[in-house]
Each structure stands twice: as C-alpha cells, then as structure tokens.
Design brief:
Strand content of chain D: under 5%
Radius of gyration of chain A: 24 Å
Distance between the termini of chain A: 24 Å
Shape of chain D: globular
Largest sheet of chain D: none
Largest sheet of chain A: 6 strands, mixed
Distance between the termini of chain D: 18 Å
CATH class of chain D: Mainly Alpha
Helix content of chain D: over 70%
Strand content of chain A: 15-25%
CATH superfamily of chain D: MetI-like
Helix content of chain A: 25-40%
Number of helices of chain D: 13
Number of domains of chain D: 1
Oligomer: heterotetramer
CATH topology of chain D: MetI-like fold
Number of strands of chain A: 21
Chains: A alpha+beta, B mainly alpha, C alpha/beta, D mainly alpha
Chain lengths: 521, 270, 532, 321
C-alpha cells in the first residue's frame, strides 16, 4: 500500500483506538503497542482461555518448565529436576531469588498450592483431564520437600508429563501466588512472576501491561518461553482490533508497533514498505487435505495417491501463501528438529501416473466433495487449487463451502469425503501424528486408522531418546505417504509486521508474538 | 400496444446481452473458467486475457461469463419460486380474508421484520452453501414482500366496481377471482417479477460477497468481487469487471421493469 | 372602450405535431362587473381559453397566436413576478373539483390567509378578521372556529363556497369559475352559484363562468359564448342564444336538455319488488355510533315500471339501489323480489335472481374490467344461462351490441372507447340477460349534455323494447321529468315524497321537493337578467 | 401539531399488536440458529477439542438442556430485558448490541436523512420540470443509482478516495462522541455509499408522487392565487406528495437499522450487522438471538413512527384508523 502522509491521520486513528480517553503517559515512559484480534476471555491462566488469553498471560505468569525455541522443554521457574528410575516421580528444584508481583518470594508452598488448585476439578483447568484418570497418567501426589523443592508423583510413567506442564493452552501451568484468588476460591487477578503485570483492562478496547521491576529473568538468551524474558519497555498495550484490515491500517499509520498473524495476502502488500519489517517463520500449523478413508470411493488408497500425485505442492504453496509458506508433505513441521531429510522430500506431480492409479482404483469421474470454509483464506484457496489441479488428471472434485463451525462439526463427526483443513500448532511430532491417528470408531475425528501407524506412534511416545523417536517418525512418514489418509501440503507461514523503530522482535514458529526483549529505538 | 421508450430499449438490450452471454457461455468461454495458471497470476487486461487474470491466473472474462450463467440461473429460479408461492399465499390472504388473512399476515409481518439478508444467511448456514439453498434462502427472504404486493393488489382490485358488477351477474367469488382479479393483478405481478429479478441478483452477489454465496470454485460476480477485495490497489480490474456486470444487469432489469409497467398499463403511461 | 379584458384571435396548439388546434381564433371582450358564460362540452377548449388568461396552461399546450389584454396589458408576455401579482390579486379562479381544489394538508384558515398575505399589507389580526367575515358571507356557520379545520371536514358544497371565499377575499376584478358546481348536487349547486353571483355583484367583479349546463347559463349569465372543438360557434346575449340558437351545434345542445315527455300509461302490473321498512346503518370513522344510511324505507316497483329515486348527496339513494339487489348484507327490514328474499337465496334460485336483476353504475369506466374486450364483457352475464348454446349466446351478444349502437366494436377494450360508448357497453351488459328489473345508479350524470341525451333516449328505447322495470337513481329532476313513471324523493335516508311523475313535479307536497324543484335550472331566463 | 388524545393509546395498541410478530421472530430465530450444524463449544475448542471436552463445555454453557427449556428460559429473561451473555466473550448481550447499534445507527440514520433530503429536492425538481432535461437527468441518475450494489460502490469509493487520493481513511471507526472531526471522516465514505444506493428509489418515488400531486387542482389553484413556484412546491406539493416516500424511508430505515452487514463489511465498521454475521459464524446463540430480536423491534418501531407521521402530512389520516 502506498505511503501515507501526515500526522493528522495518525491522530485520527489514535482516537479510533480510544487512546485519547487515556491519561497521558509520563514522558519518559516507553510504550509498545500490539494487537489482539479479540479481547481476552479472562486473566485466569489455563482455565477460561483461548489463544489470545494464553499469549497475553505468557507475559504475566510463568510455570516450572516451558518450551524452548526448538520446542523441547526447558527449565523456567524450576532450575532443574530429577526423574525417579520408575519414571513416576518428578522432583523440581526452584530457581532462587524469584519473587511474585506482590513482592513475596517464590517458595515450594505456592507451587504446591498452584498445582493442587489446577488438579482440583472445580478449577476447570484446561489440562485437568490429561493429568487425572481420563488422561495419560494421574497425578497422585504433590508435596513440598523443602522451601525450594517440590515433588510430584504420577500413577504411571508418562514421557509427556513435562511437555504437558509446558503447554501454552494449559496456561504453562503457571505458578501463582494464592492471593490470586479470593477467600472463596473465586478468581481475582494473576499474581505471578512474569516480566509484566496487568495494569488495566478496558474490555474490548485495550489491555495494559506494565514492567515488573522485581522481575528475575532466567539468565541466557531469549529461548522460546524460557530464557531472556526481560521487559524492554515500560508499558505494553494490547489493542483489541477485530478487523484485520483495520489492524493493518493502524500499523501503517503508526498506531501499532507490532502486528502478528499477518495473512500472506496482506504481507504481499506490506513487503513493499520501508518503514516496516516483516518477520516470516515457517509455522507449526499443518495444512492438509483430509480424506474419509471409509468412504466407498476413497477407501481405495490408489485414488488417494492419485489425488496426491496431481498436486503441484510448491506451486500451490506459493499461490496460497504468497511465496512465504514452506512446502511440506510431512506431518512433522519444517521448523521441527525432527524434520529431517526423509521428511523434506516433496515428490513432483505426475498426472499420467495419477490417471493410471485412479483408473486402477475403478474411478470413473464420480464427483468427490471437498469441504472447505471461507473463514480461513488459506483453507479456501488451497481447496480451490486442489480442485483445479485434480481436474487436470480427470478427477472431479466438487467444493462444498461451509462456515467454519459447520466444517468443524463435520470434522468432529467424520461426515465428509474430503476436507481442506489446518491443524493448529502441535509442538511435538507425536502430538501432531496423534491428532491424525487413532480408532475412527471411537473417535471419528481421526483420519488415519491403521494399526501399524498406531504402534509406531506409541513407540514415538514411549521413549525420550531423540534418535529412536526420529526413526519412528521417519517410518510413520513413509507409511503416511503410501497410505495417504491425508495430504499434507505446507506449513502456513507465521508472519509478523513490526515498525522499523522496534528492536529485538523475533517471531517464533511455535508460538504467537512474544514482546519481552522487544524495545523501541 | 405502445412503443418502447429509449430507456426501455436500453433495458431490453442489456437483458438481451446478458441472456446472449449466458447462451454463449454454455458453449464457449475464452478459457476454462476454473483452469488455473500459476505462472500468469494477476495479468492485467491484455490481448490474451481481455479482462485480465486473477490471483490464480484464471481468466476474468471467462469467469464473468460463467458467473452470468450462475447468477442469472439463481435469480430466475428464485423469482419463479418466490412469485409462485407469493401469488398463492397472497391471493389466499386477500381472497379468503378473515382469520386466514390475519394468521398469514402476522406470520408475513414477522418475516418482513426479519432483516432479509440475515434470514438468507441463516437458511444458507443450515443447508450449506449451494445453488439450491441459495435459491431457497432468497425465495424465503423475498416471499414476504411478494405476498404483501399480491395481497394488496387482490384487495384493491376486489373493491373495484367491475368486481361488484360481476357479483351482480351472479358470478361466484372464485370466478371473479379468476376472470377479473387475476388478469388485472398480473401486470403488477409481472412488473414485480422484473424488479425482483434485479433485487435477487443483487442479494445473491451480496451474499457471495459476504462469503456464503455460490460455492467455489464456480464463479459468481459476488464471489469474484469478494476475492478481488484484497488486491484492490494492485489489481483493480479484478473488482471492476464483475461490478460492472452487476450494474449493467441491474440497470437492465430496472429499465425493463419500468418499460413493462408502462406497457402493461392498458390506459397508457400517465 | 374601457374594457376589463380583451382576448383577440387566441390560438392554442398541442406540442405534439399533427393535431388540430385546441383553440382557434378565440376572441372575447369583457367589461367590469360583467357576467359571461363560456359554454361547451369536454374538449371544446373552454377551460384552456380561461386558463390562458392566468398563464396556467397545462404542460404540452402552447399559445401560437393571439393576445390577451387585461386592463390594457398583454398578460401573455408578463414576467413571472408581475404575472403572480396579477394572479389571485386582480384575477381569481375557482375550479371544478371541490375535493381536489383545496390542499388537504392545510387548514382552511391558512389557505385563506395565503392569498391575503401575498397580495395585501394587512396585519395578521386584520387578515384573520377578513377571513372570518368572508366565511360568514359564504354561509359557513361558526367561521372563527372553523378556520382551524381541514378541507376534509367540510361537505363538497361547503368546500366550493370556501374556495369562493378565498378567491373573493382579494376582491379580484375578474373571476374565472371553471365548472364550479358540476360535482355538486342540485341544492349545493344553487347555493354556491347564488353566493358567487352575490359576491361578484357586491365587489363589481366580472365573471367568466365556464359550464356545460345551459340551465346555469340561463339563470346567471348575461352573455354566452358557445364553443365546439376549439371553435367559437355562437356568441351573444344569453336570452337570444338560448331562445333562438343559430348554429346547428347550439341547437343540438339546447335540444339535448331533458324535457318531459307524455306520461306513459303503465298498465297496472303486479308488484315485482316490495320493500318494507328497510334499514341500513354504517359505522363512520369520524362519528361515534352508527350512521343510518337508510332509515325505514318502504316502496314497491311494479313490472315494467320506471321509478326514479331523487335526492341530494347522502340521501341514501345509492344504498337503496344496492340493498334491493341484495348487495348490502347488513340490511334490516324486508326486501322481496317476486316474493323471495334475495339475501336468503342459494344455488339455482340465487342464479335465477341474478339473471332477473341487473345494475348499471354511474362510472362506466370503473365498472368495466379494463382487461376484457367489449364482447367478453357483454357476454359474461350469459354464463348464468346454461339453456343457451354458445352460438345462441354469441348471437344474443351481437344483437344487444347492435341495439346499443355498438355493432362491430365488440373487439375493443374499454379504454379505447369514449365515455358515452362505455356507458352503452354497461347498459348492453345489463340487458343481455333480459332482466325483469334493473337498478340504474346515476347512469348519465358523468356524461356530456348531448351524450347524456342520447344515452337517456337509448335507455328509454331499451326499456320499451325489453320491458324491464327500473329503479332509476338520479339527482337531476330534468332527467326524472324525461323518463320516470313514478318519483320517490329521498332525504337523509327517508322517503319524503312519492307519487306519479307529473303529480310530484307539478304539485310537490314536501318542502324539500319544492326546494329541489326551485334549484333545478331551466332554460327560462330569469326576468331580472333580461332587463338589466 | 399537538398530540391527539388517542395517540398514546394507539401506540400502546400497536406495540401490543407487534408482540405476536416479535414472538414469531423469536421462535424463528431460535429454531433457525439451532438447526445450523456446529456449536459454540466446537468453535471455541477448534481442532484440539476432543468430543469429551466439547461435551463438557456444552454442559457448562447449558447447551445440553432440551431446546424448549432453553427457549423458555431465554424468553423469560428477554422479557425482563436480560438478553443473556455472549457465549464467546462473556459480555452481556444488551450493552453489546447497544454499543454496536450506535455505530450502525449513526451511519444509517445520517445516510437515510441525507438520501431523503436529496430525494425530496431531486424528486420535486424533476416533477416540476417534467419531461425536460433536468427531469431526464434526475431520473437517469436515480435509475443508475438503483443499479449499483452498495458493496461495489463502497469498494470503488475506497479505491478512489482512500487508496488513490488518500483523502479519507480506508478502514476503522471513531465514535462521534469521542472525536467529532475524526468520527466524521470515518463516516463520509460509508454514508456516501448508502446515500447513493438508497436515494435512487426514493428520488423516483418522490418524483412520481409529486407528479400526481402537480396534476391536482389545488396546485393550479395555488398558482392562480399568485404564489411563487417555490412556495407552491414546498407548501402545497411536498406535504401531499411525501407520504409514499416516507413509507419507503421507513422500510429502508427499518431494515438497515437491523444491521447493514454488507456496508459494515466493506468499511470494516463494528456495527450491528457485522456482529450478527460474526455471531452466526461463531454460533454465539445469545448474541444472534438478541440481535435479531432487536432488529425486528427496530423495524416495528420505525414503521410505527412512520405511521404516526402520516397524520402530520395528511390530516385526513387519523391514527385510530
């Protein structure tokens, strides 16, 4: 979009965002403005939450462990930990010198209180089920060993325990000061240990965080959600701007400093601007065409292979993501450390072979309905291109555009032939495969109901040894390409646009915007 | 019969052009409107692509032609459905009067009080996007207005003296309805149908613009416009062509309905 | 010559080419205080001639020759400003349709005030006083209070007098009255014109009365100008023009006035229709309770007899006509046609009753289905005659069309015919089933004089030919005189007088009948006019 | 004009008479939205929500109770003015609607008012100059305006005035109450779009009825009184010719107040129409139900207001009739 002149319009947008109603900030105060596409649901981490809530609260509260940049789990409030030989007992040693926003030091008492609160069903913690009877393992005990040591006991070994604690949608299992809740247990406000604390929340307009002077960052460089989390600005403001176009306009006028989640289409325009910098990462989301393998027509893997063979995967990726996405045929995202050479191969289209396979499968031009939606342009455009590419090999695909909720309903009930879909980011390839793989009869969401795949998936989960896991993923990938229960096409890019005077912004493939370590010139 | 005015001729010409385009598009379009060409995206209008190409390299002219087919088909089917149902219900209300009328009209008023666009949106959400549910949704959205007009026409014609004359002759109400009310209401209904064609076309494109219209990849003018929106400043031709098609068609429909109004009035234009 | 108005050689043409001139070589001279009538039927150009004086020609009409001098000034070339000063101030105009000549959205006070404020410098209080005084002079009771009323709260006659008041308030030197009373009943017409003549005389205002009613000309105008199709065919002293018309058209016009024929010796026949104590009440919006339209009416009509029902607007005569045909469901009392109650009939009896009775409406345009051809319209009642074959029906239709003088016009639509022809179609439709009883509701009052005479004659002929009995509803005693055997006079829903035609017309018993008779214009020129 | 004694009673009667209409609307809304597949629990949990989690959330939201019970509870609260809280955001629905309604209303009301003004002036002038150049020009422009889809016109205006000329902001919204000048700048394009789109039909209606009135004798009478053409048009033609246009104005206003979803989408305005569309997509039942009920009520009230205006234009019409 062309340059815009003048401060008048900036003033206008300032008013638009209701800034004029605020008390003027002190002259020396630095203010960084970022966008929320919807207001956060609550300040209660891991309980009443959505992605926005998770993202904002990552700046306010911290857990014992968290994800590192490479999606492995690293220490945060826990300095280190030991696992018992039977894999059931975890002993966490707290990092000394950490204090809560209210000045109280972090001790094992708060950790025990926090974990027990989460495990209480009345709390409705998002990940309560995972760590109770219904999940992988049950927490049978949480106790303080001394003021700096906490012990957690599981009923059976669970390799994913730490990863679960680190999960962003679990609120990072944040350690809170008990004054976060009232005497009746009702939620008040988070008293955490993060670099920022909440200073003001005007519903549907903005949310203000201010620097927590007493913050003690985990030493070291910025690393995922773990290290180098120091605040570099005095005040961090999240403006609620639902409309993406309005948000983009705000950025162009200088009323926003950071705009995360830019669509590739918009990024095409923003790329030309000299007062902006784009931060593009190959994300952990997975775009795929899902098949219902019990469908009378699509149950034959040769037809599914045929469709896969019609796809010009790089071309499709380029068109849908404006050249910013990474073609990828593997369930393992390109940014994952497990994405090795075996995963990286992208077979070229082969229309003749596709025709032959379809023919062999007894396909005679019957229409295949591909469900898509208008909410997410990438899913829609991807479906349109898949339709057009399959047409070239004589395979008739009919698009059915539903709204997102209706498509999700079909996804959850398995009522479709084919579906254009994007899996949200899953840090661990096991979780990625887990989203796809399983017993269709028990869980209709699963697209890949194959005993061999399930065995391999179990193997990848049971061990913590990277080499062993890598082998399992490579085998899974080979099997996946042969069976084609779904066609993974690309990992959508994670694009942020930041103003030129913003320093230290670093996007992260695995997560939304992180505004610690970000300053203003 | 009166001769058509200049504007009437323009209306006939525009609608004629539209129908001709529809017929041609059944047999031939410059390119396959669905065929992508990822190496030639965003081509400005040229000798190869007269109206340019879109974000996937599809030919805009071919898509506009195919869009005419879809838009016109949906509009015609909707008008037929809304008018035939509306005539039955409106006549029943105006003819039977009394409780039937009251119940029908209360229900009708409720539908009228419903924003038509949102009603259509709801119906489409229930039945899924598709030509069929689009026709159903728009027919339901416009039905209340048709019922209103037809009922109004029936009630007003009922009060004319020639209906009383028919009564004096001993004719039954049904005969009066059939022989006097229906022919005298039919011009109004024809004019209504012509305007309705325009409105439906407009609503169809608006719904497609909102993203709940004709299912992709089939082009309709509305969804062409919707997908052109992000490229407004770099590829304006993508928005101009389908918009111009809608304007020309609506103009044609409106002028035609004006001409019909003049022509059907046996007393001639005022 | 100190003439007030001189029109010389005026020619008006339609803008569309190829049409004959609407008005050709029209000249007229008028002295102050003089009363002239402009006589002619629709399309004669009389209204256009008058409107030229005020520069109020409708769009599409152009003056192509002649001039109009008002007090020596040519008004056809005036600039808008001076022309507006002339309008209303020096020249006033009263229009035909009292329902449409007052703005329904303004109080009459505001409308009276508009002209005064524009043309005089009077203060508001004085204007109000003048308006009240003028309303009183046009016989509006309680004028001060009624200034705040809206036009729809007055009757047609009152509205026309209010129009007069608003025009005469400014004491114009010339008053143009364009068919001011055509839509009024006889009594209201008399009252309005009397008031007009009185006010004009008092203010020494010259009057141009445009009318097609020769009776009015005879009563009010000193001079008359007769127009036919844009040409002046005769002009002169009223008495002379009417008593000894020279032009054939004037002669025809004079001859078309209804005149009393010899009383028919109607043989005493059995009663076809008997009505006893008929009552009909309506709920009216502006009044609480029920408004009685018919209040205990009893009458009989014998076979073959023509009974005229006379009365002013609102006398209930139209309701009576509808009620005896069983078209008013809310009727109380007793109606018997050949001994049967029309409202109680069903099935074949009902169809037989419908065949035996017919109705002719006042407005032939509204009563004919515009989308049917004349032949279909006339054939439609024969649906109830199953004993006739299709060929017989066709023959019957043809014969009836011939009877009404419309041979060969069966293929036309109503809008392709003149008003007189349309009324003939309506009459043909009424008689095609050979009914024994016809209700004719003011069938000629919407027609021009010469056409009216023709249609009346036709109606008489057909009645003689087919022998149906008839209830003939009219407000025109002249028409009654021409055709009725018996007369019923109605007022406010009751019968005030009833009797044989000559008895009622010559020896009226009821004061209302006498008033009606006095108000009915005749060609007898009043003596005070002949000797000014 | 002073209020007539029957007006209050009439309004009460009309509002009461609209209750069945509103009830039918409520039932329709409730039934329709529940027929749409998918529910808010699924939307909130996305692809990560397993069936048990969805079911648990549904229970928490009260969506697993029988529909008639849910409807009765909702209706009971609605009658007391409580439209519930948004499932997605937990905000109370009524304040949310009112906040969004301010946006829609400020645009729609100013656009319709302007369009009416244009229609009155244009229609009167065209009728006054019947079949002359001015008339033909006005009719031509009005017919063209009727043929332009609002969303396309909006896009084209954005392209010209926002993107190319950069005179006006492209997206966003400032409430007028917060900053008058800035607020106006954001209103210009959406209002202009609506004015153009809505004025076409109004101009033509005004012209037609003005032509009818101009043929009547009292207009000739007014001229014969010597009144100026301006006064004839304004005092005698306008009041008597305005009623049919007013009816159309009422219909347009009634429908647009319920949400101008399309125009709000084009100009990214946080209005009521967008709220409904977004809520339908998110299956935010309380918001959808509240909005549509509100829209129907707005429609009924606007039309009632129009009915109450008729007696001001034409004293022959009484409100009791």
């Amino acid at each position: 979009m062309p340059d815009r002149r003048g401060g008048r319009r900036s003033a206008i947008l300032g008013a638009a965002l209701a800034l004029l109603a605020l008390p003027p900030a002190a002259r020396a105060e630095t203010l960084l403005r970022a966008r929320l596409n919807a207001d956060i649901l609550s300040t209660n981490p891991g309980v009443r939450r959505d992605e926005n809530t998770d993202m904002v609260l990552q700046h306010v509260v911290e857990g014992l462990v968290a994800y590192r940049e490479d999606t492995s789990v690293g220490p945060l409030l826990a300095e280190r930990w030991e696992t018992s030989p039977d894999g059931r007992t975890y002993t966490f040693h707290l990092r000394p010198g950490v204090s809560f926003h209210n000045g109280a030091p972090l001790t094992s008492a708060e950790v025990v209180w926090s974990l027990r609160r989460y495990l209480d069903p009345k709390t409705h913690w998002r990940c309560g089920r995972e760590l109770s009877g219904g999940g992988y393992a049950r927490v049978v005990g949480v106790e303080a060993v001394d003021t700096q040591t906490v012990r957690v006991v599981l009923d059976k070994p669970f390799a994913g325990f730490l990863a679960t604690l680190a999960r962003v949608d679990c609120g990072g299992t944040a350690i809170l000061h008990p004054s976060s809740v009232g005497p009746d247990g009702a939620w008040r406000a988070p008293v955490g240990t993060g670099p920022f604390r909440i200073a003001g929340w005007k519903h549907n307009q903005y949310l203000d965080l201010v620097r927590f002077a007493g913050y003690r960052a985990l030493p070291g460089p910025r690393d995922g959600h773990t290290g180098g989390k120091a605040a570099r600005v005095d005040r961090l403001r999240f403006l609620v701007i639902p409309d993406p176009v309005a948000a983009e306009a705000a950025l162009l006028r200088g009323d926003l400093d950071v705009l995360d989640n830019v669509t590739p289409i918009d990024a095409r325009q923003l790329r030309k601007r000299r007062d902006l910098r784009l931060d593009v990462r190959a994300g952990f989301d997975v775009f795929a065409i899902l098949f219902e393998t019990r469908d009378p027509l699509l149950r034959d893997p040769r037809l599914r292979q045929a469709i896969a063979l019609t796809l010009d995967v790089p071309g499709l990726t380029r068109a849908v993501t404006a050249g910013m996405g990474r073609p990828n045929r593997s369930v393992v995202p390109v940014s994952s450390p497990f994405h090795d050479a075996a995963q990286a191969q992208v077979p070229p289209p082969n229309l003749a072979e596709a025709r032959r396979l379809a023919q062999a499968a007894g396909y005679r031009g019957q229409p295949i309905t591909l469900i898509t939606n208008h909410r997410y342009p990438a899913m829609f455009d991807g479906a349109v291109l898949v339709q057009a590419m399959a047409m070239q090999a004589g395979i008739t695909i009919r698009l059915e555009t539903l709204d997102w909720a209706a498509e999700l309903d079909r996804y959850n009930t398995g009522r479709y032939q084919a579906m254009s879909f994007t899996y949200s980011a899953r840090m661990d390839p096991s979780l990625g495969y887990d989203a796809l793989t399983g017993d269709k009869a028990a869980d209709p969401r699963k697209v890949w109901d194959d005993p061999q795949a399930r065995a391999l998936l179990a193997r990848s989960r049971a061990t913590a040894d990277p080499a062993e896991r890598q082998a399992a993923f490579d085998q899974l990938h080979a099997l996946f390409l042969r069976d084609v229960p779904a066609i993974v096409v690309f990992n959508p890019p994670r694009i942020a646009a930041v103003a030129a005077n913003v320093t230290g912004y670093q996007g992260w493939a695995a997560g939304p915007q992180r505004l610690w370590g970000v300053g203003l010139r | 019969m009166r001769r058509l005015s200049l504007s009437g001729w323009i209306g006939v010409a525009l609608i004629g052009l539209l129908l001709a385009t529809v017929l041609v598009s059944l047999a031939w379009t410059p390119f396959n409107p669905l065929a992508i060409d990822l190496d030639h995206t965003f081509a400005p209008p040229s000798a190869r692509h007269w109206l340019g190409s879109d974000e996937f390299g599809r030919d805009v002219l071919s898509r506009a032609m195919a869009g005419a087919r879809i838009s016109v088909g949906i509009a015609l089917a909707t008008v037929a459905a809304a008018v035939s149902a509306g005539v039955v219900l409106g006549t029943a209300a105006g003819f039977l009067r009394g409780p039937v009328d009251r119940v029908l009209m209360t229900f009708n008023d409720a539908l009228l009080a419903f924003p038509g666009m949102l009603l259509a949106l709801g119906v489409i959400a229930v039945f899924g996007a598709g030509a069929g549910s689009m026709v159903g949704a728009l027919a339901v959205a416009y039905l209340p207005s048709v019922v209103r007009v037809v009922r109004g026409a029936v009630l007003s014609i009922r009060e004319r003296e020639y209906i009383e004359a028919s009564r004096v002759m001993g004719n039954s109400e049904a005969w009066s309805m059939w022989r006097h009310v229906a022919p005298n209401a039919s011009p109004q209904i024809a004019v209504l149908a012509a305007s309705l064609f325009g409105w439906v076309l407009l609503s169809e494109s608006a719904l497609s613009f909102l993203g709940v219209g004709v299912p992709a990849p089939a082009p309709s003018w509305g969804n062409m416009l919707a997908s052109a929106r992000p490229y407004l400043d770099t590829a304006a031709w993508l928005a101009i062509a389908p918009g111009a098609c809608i304007v020309a068609t609506l103009l044609g429909a409106n002028l035609l309905s004006d001409a019909l109004r003049d022509r059907f009035d046996p007393r001639g234009a005022p | 010559m100190s003439g007030l108005l001189r029109i010389e050689g005026l020619r008006l043409e339609a803008e569309a080419a190829g049409r004959p001139a609407l008005l050709d070589d029209f000249s007229l001279a008028l002295d102050p205080g003089e009363f002239v009538a402009l006589v002619g039927e629709s399309g004669s150009g009389k209204t256009l001639a008058a409107r030229t004086i005020l520069g109020l020609l409708p769009p599409g009409v152009r003056r192509t020759a002649g001039q109009v001098l008002f007090e020596g000034r040519d008004v056809t070339n005036l600039a808008p400003g001076p022309l507006r000063a002339l309008r209303g101030g020096a020249i006033g105009m009263v229009f035909q349709e009292p329902m449409a000549s007052l703005n329904p959205a303004m109080t009459i006070g505001a409308q009276l005030d508009e002209g005064l404020r524009l043309h005089t410098a009077l203060p508001a209080a004085a204007r109000r006083a003048a308006a009240i005084e003028m309303l009183a002079r046009v016989r509006i009771t309680d004028p001060a209070r009624r200034l705040a009323s809206y036009p729809h709260e007055f009757s047609g006659g009152m509205r026309q007098r209010i129009m007069l008041a608003s025009v005469m308030l400014l004491k114009p030197r010339l008053l143009i009255a364009d068919e001011p009373t055509t839509a009024l009943d006889t009594l209201a017409q008399r009252e309005a014109l009397d008031v007009m003549a009185e006010l004009a005389a008092a203010a020494n205002t010259a009057v141009i009365l445009i009318t097609h009613n020769l009776g009015l000309v005879a009563r009010y105008a000193r001079r008359a100008v007769v127009l036919e199709k844009g040409r002046t065919v005769e002009a002169g002293e009223t008495a002379q023009v009417l008593a000894a018309p020279k032009d054939p058209y004037t002669r025809r016009l004079v001859a078309s006035l209804p005149r009393r024929g010899p009383a028919r010796g109607v043989p005493s026949a059995p009663a076809l229709l008997t009505v006893r104590d008929l009552r009909v009440a309506y709920r009216r919006r502006d009044q609480p309770g029920l408004f009685p339209a018919l209040d205990g009416v009893s009458l009989t009509v014998a076979a073959g007899e023509l009974v005229a029902v006379v009365g002013g607007s609102g006398s209930g005569k139209t309701t009576l006509g509808r009620a005896v045909l069983g078209l008013v469901k809310e009727a109380g009392g007793e109606v018997r046609f050949e001994g049967l109650d029309p409202l109680a009939l069903t099935g074949a009896d009902r169809r037989a009753f419908r065949r035996a009775t017919q109705l002719v409406f006042q407005d032939p345009y509204a009563s004919l289905d515009p989308r049917m051809r004349v032949g279909e319209i006339v054939a439609e009642p024969l649906r109830n005659c199953p004993e006739l074959s299709a060929a017989e029906k066709a023959r019957r239709v043809e014969a009836v069309l011939a009877d009404v003088g419309l041979e060969a016009l069966g293929g036309r639509f109503p809008h392709q015919m003149s008003g007189g022809q349309r009324q003939r179609v309506a009459i043909a439709r009424a008689v095609v089933t050979r009914p024994r009883f016809v209700v004719a509701d003011e069938p000629v009052s919407a027609l021009d004089a010469t056409i009216q005479a023709q249609v009346l004659t036709l109606f008489q002929t057909l009645q003689a030919q087919y022998g149906f009995a008839c209830l003939f509803i009219t407000h025109d005693l002249g028409v009654v005189a021409q055709i009725a055997d018996r007369v019923i006079v109605m007022r406010d829903g009751r019968i005030v007088e009833e009797g044989a035609r000559d008895a009622v017309l010559d020896h009226p018993q009821d004061p209302y009948t006498r008033e009606l008779l006095a108000a009915t214009p005749s060609l007898a020129v009043p003596s005070q006019r002949t000797e000014p | 004009m002073s209020a007539r004694p029957g007006v209050v009673g009439y309004v009460a009667k009309r509002v009461a008479g609209a209750l069945p209409t509103l009830l039918i609307v409520a039932v329709l809304v409730f039934g329709l939205i529940r027929m749409i597949p998918g529910d808010p629990a699924q939307v909130m949990l996305g692809d990560a929500g397993d069936p048990q989690a969805v079911a648990a959330l549904r229970t928490e939201m009260g969506l697993d109770r029988p529909l008639p019970l849910q409807f009765a509870a909702w209706l009971g609260h609605a009658l007391r003015g409580d439209l519930g809280v948004s499932i997605a955001t937990g905000e109370p629905v009524l304040p949310l609607i009112l906040q969004r309604f301010q946006v829609t209303a400020s645009i729609v009301v100013s656009a319709i008012a302007l369009a009416t003004l244009i229609a009155v002036v244009g229609g009167l002038l065209a009728a006054w100059r019947h079949r002359r150049g001015l008339d033909q020009a006005v009719v031509g422009v009005a017919t063209l305006a009727m043929a332009v889809p609002s969303f396309w016109l909006g896009l084209m205006l954005l392209l010209v005035f926002g993107v190319k000329l950069q005179w006006l902001p492209v997206v966003g919204y400032v409430p007028l109450t917060e900053h008058l000048g800035a607020g106006l700048a954001y209103l210009v394009l959406p209002v202009a779009t609506l004015v153009i789109v809505e004025s076409g039909v109004l101009i033509r209606m005004m012209r037609t009825s003005a032509l009818d009135v101009l043929r009547l004798e009292y207009v000739t009478h007014a001229r014969a009184k010597g009144l100026s053409e301006a006064r004839v048009l304004l005092r005698h033609v306008l009041p008597n010719a305005f009623a049919p246009t007013l009816t159309l104005v009422g219909l347009a206003l009634g429908h647009l107040l319920g949400g101008a979803a399309v125009i709000e989408t084009v100009f990214t305005l946080p209005g009521l129409g967008r709220l409904v569309v977004d809520s339908i997509l998110a299956r935010d039942y309380p918001v959808v139900q509240g909005c549509l009920l509100f829209a129907a009520l707005a429609y009924v009230l606007v039309n009632l207001a129009v009915d109450l205006c008729y007696p001001l234009l034409d004293p022959r019409v009484t409100v009791e009739g």
